[in-house]
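All the exercises in this workshop are built on plain-text protein records. A learned vocabulary of local backbone shapes supplies the integers on the structure line. Once this layout is familiar, the rest of the handout is easier to follow. An example says more than a description, so a record of this kind follows:
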Amino acid sequence: CRQRRPIRLGRMSSVLSSISLLSDAKYFEEKNSKFNELHDHLAGKNTKKKLNAMKRLIAMMTLGRDVSTFFPDVVKNVIVDNTEIKKLVYMFLTHYAEENQELALLAINTLQNDLRSSNQRVRANALRAMSSISIKVVIPIVMMALKSAVRDTSSYVRKAAACAIPKVCRTDPSRKSELVDMVAELVSNSEPNVLGASMFAFSQVCPDRYDLL
């Protein structure tokens, strides 16, 4: 049996460099996450650097790292006119909104505007972020958004509406009757992705209302 030769450092480096990694894998390397640099990029005007900063934050968030201290920097970027950045900003807001309620309120106007976007993903992401702000003063605005979303032409937005309903019910149980009506409308959808989310909303809000099925 021939003895294997140890892989030299230079060769190891060559082997690793030849491995095909995911295009954004570098953002999951914590050594790339220099906090001061991230603050600067989020505050700057360079779109590419801003996008890179958001990807790094989402990567760290995915790894379980607490990056909630960046919330003030991120929420300022909710007005950025770039779909990819906006998507990541909304992911961040949705994740940390509950523990940063007051700051999250700063994004309400922009979220309302995005609910009228022609892009279905922007509308859905805006609804997800808005429904994650668990403050009763926001509920009337969220309810208006939900009433429109359950009838949206996009199944993607209707699915987001179904997922948002249980959140709103937990924040303001007094709205249950209105939310049940929305669930009733959603469970009549024939699209599988909408129906699955609707059944989840049904199980969370009105599991005893078999007459809706």
Observations:
- The chain has twelve helices and no strands.
- The mean pLDDT is 84.
- Residues 155-171 form the longest helix (17 residues).
- The radius of gyration is 22 Å.
